[in-house]
Amino acid sequence: MVLPFRLILFQSYFLLIAVAVEAFILYRRLQTSRKKSVQYAAFMNVLAHVCGWIVFFVLLPLFPEEFKAQVISYIFYNRFLSGLPVDRPIIVVTSVAVMIFFGAYLLKLKGLEILEFYVEFMPARDKNRGTNNSEQSFFQRLTSGENTLNLARLIVGAGILNKTLDKKKPRYDYLFTRWQAISIFWAHLSSSSAILLILLWREIALRYRG
Amino acid sequence: MLKMFDKARGITKSMTDAMSGAMSGALSWKTMAFLGFFSWFMAFIARVVAELTYGSSNSFTSETLSSCGWIFLIIAVDWWTMEHPSDFLGFSFGTWVTGALVCIFLFVELFENIGDEFPSVLFVAWPVISAIIKITHICYPASSKYRERLNYRAFWTVILCHLLISCWIQFYFSSQYWLNNYPTLLSEDFEKSAFIMRVEPVIRANRGEQLLNALETDIKANVDNQPWFEVDQVISKYTNLSSDDLKETIKEQVPEISEDIWWQLISKIEQINPSQKTLILQARWRGPTLPTLGSQLTQTCQIVRINDPGSLGRNEAARNLVFIAKIECSASDVQTGESPSI
Prior knowledge:
- The structure holds two protein chains of two kinds.
- Chain A is an all-alpha fold.
- Helix content of chain A is 72%, strand content 1%.
- The longest helix of chain A has 32 residues, at 178-209.
- The model of chain A is unreliable at 123-135 and 163-171 (pLDDT under 50).
- Chain B has helices at residues 2-23, 29-53, 60-83, 93-110, 112-117, 120-139, 144-148, 152-181, 207-223, 228-239, 243-249, 316-321; strands at 87-88, 91-92, 197-198, 263-273, 276-285, 296-307, 323-329, 333-335.
- The termini of chain B are far apart.
- Strand 1 (2-3) of chain A pairs antiparallel with strand 3 of chain B.
């Protein structure tokens, strides 16, 4: 009987570290409240971890047997096997890591944008925003054609249709500016580096212990 | 007599009171619980009736009724936990209880065959279903107050944490699957692993030995006590087979696992003298090199010609005609180092 206790501990630990680092950077660069920056960071990171797991579970059965053996060996022994066609997996590991880094960044950015998009429709904010939407019910707003179209445009990155001329100020404050996107990238880079350093330290410690 | 009548009237009155209280005025979780138990009671009656009339215990009616009972009970529990919320770090206790009930209902009652085929689905689905229940709570028309004071960023983070827990449970089941499917590959200790911990020692049989033993049993069943003149034919049937075909013949004894593609089975025959043959069975490891693993296992079997003990009464000429084969095999021994190529 084996239990994934170490996985649960490591993943929770990495999540905590990433949230701490990213919240600090977002707080400093975006001038938001401390609470809000922690919430942003927590949402982004948990989203990235969950999506990573789902991709792992979907892709692993599709891989060739040799590659699967390398992954399983890494999971159980923390080392790679020799004597397989994928003998020196360092190139594969590096390119996968780079892909994961940029994929996770895109995911965090888009996930946060979509989250902010939905937060816009919640009743608590209607009071501040005026009477425009409050007559419609929550469901009507959630499923109306304009919103669906806007969500679709948001996902593909085309921006939001904004035809209302009566407002000088942009109506949608959940779209990220370039500065915000760069701040998120900066936060992501820092938290990834922190985790990478911890992993490296663990590897060296294991090596010296024997 | 009058007293009994009074009592009966009292009971009916209290029952109608309960019914009207449940049905009309205040619609609450009590109504749902009452409906649930009532459905189960009716299902029980339907079952008894079916047993008395047809002699079979499960009927469509009773199953439908008990499913309805489950659904009402789930709604009742959900309703009750919404009225009595108890939260811990955003995880609400109530949704987990309701989620567990929904999981048991879905994979033990309703889709029994899915639950039997994949026992893991019950546990993996539990956090996901709890998360879905948590999401549905914000959509209730009655919970506008709940919506107003809800922090949506924290809410969706908690929902994602439910999914993360689900992933951990799935990883546990995956690691069990890998352990069963790669027994030789995973025969060392997992001290350095960053993922898993061994909580109790596992002793696993060598897969190569398992394959060889199964092959030996199969050959023994076909050769032992068979007439000597047929032995050559039977053995050549095995020696002509490729490794994959040999695995195919022993599939019934040892079901195939993923690791088998790295085991190569070989059978060879050597004629020593007219009355004796040696059968060599080998399992070669063709997979990744492991320090503790031998590269091949060999098992040798001696096939000797003996007189049929059943023909002892007959004359010598007849006895010479009915030789039978006896087979005896040694325990398999492990050779380490580089295995020879063929």
